[in-house]
Amino acid sequence: MNRDDYDEIAEGLEYLADVPDDVLCEVVTRDGLCFWVFDRDTMPDLSGEADPDRALASAACAGCPVIRECLELELRAAGADTVGIWGALAEYDRREVYRVWKWRHVNRGVWGGEPE
Questions:
Q1: Cα 42 from Cα 9, distance rounded (Å)
Q2: b or e along 22-61 (b: 16 or more beta carbons within 10 Å of the residue's beta carbon)?
Q3: Closest listed residue to residue 60, CA positions, set 96, 90, 97, 98
Q4: pLDDT attached to residue 40
Q5: How far apart are the first and last CA of the chain?
Q6: In the structure, what pLDDT confidence band is assigned to residue 44 with cuts at 50, 70 and 90?
Q7: Is the per-residue pLDDT at 43 higher than 70?
Q8: Which of 5, 110, 19 lies closest to 102, judged by CA?
Q9: What would the pLDDT profile of 45-69 be if each residue is shown by its tens digit?
Q10: What share of the chain is helix, strand, coil (3-state, %, to 5)?
């Protein structure tokens, strides 16, 4: 992935900026495939390597109807401290998306997170 990919992903989340956290959480936990396909003991483990983790994240989330909502929720909740698989992205890619996502939110005036 490159900077343009991260920009495109962050831009694709903008429609969720005004959705309250509790609504996102409800939608993700109700409709997210990982909440009813995997139990916490069988959730695949990440390797810590970019390419295998990207493939695992993509496969684990394939067909999930709430990928963007899941990613938005994780970016809000964990920010740069994100771990695991959320929104069909592995940790490294989410951290990169988070930087762009945060910048876009701050510059739109919708940032509700910690001060810079």
A1: 28
A2: eebeebbeeebbbeeeeeeeeeeebeeeeeebbebbeebb
A3: 90
A4: 59
A5: 26
A6: low
A7: no
A8: 110
A9: 777 777 778 888 888 889 999 999 9
A10: 65, 0, 35
- In the block, tokens 């067909």 appear at 63
Q: Residue 84 is encoded by which pair of tokens?
A: 């695991």
Closest CA to 33 of 19, 23, 44, 22: 44
When pLDDT is cut at 50, 70 and 90, the band that residue 76 belongs to is very high
Q: How many CA atoms lie within 13 A of 71 on its CB side?
A: 29
Q: Which amino acid is at 25?
A: C
Which two three-digit tokens encode residue 98?
């988070």
The H or E element spanning position 78 is helix 67-78
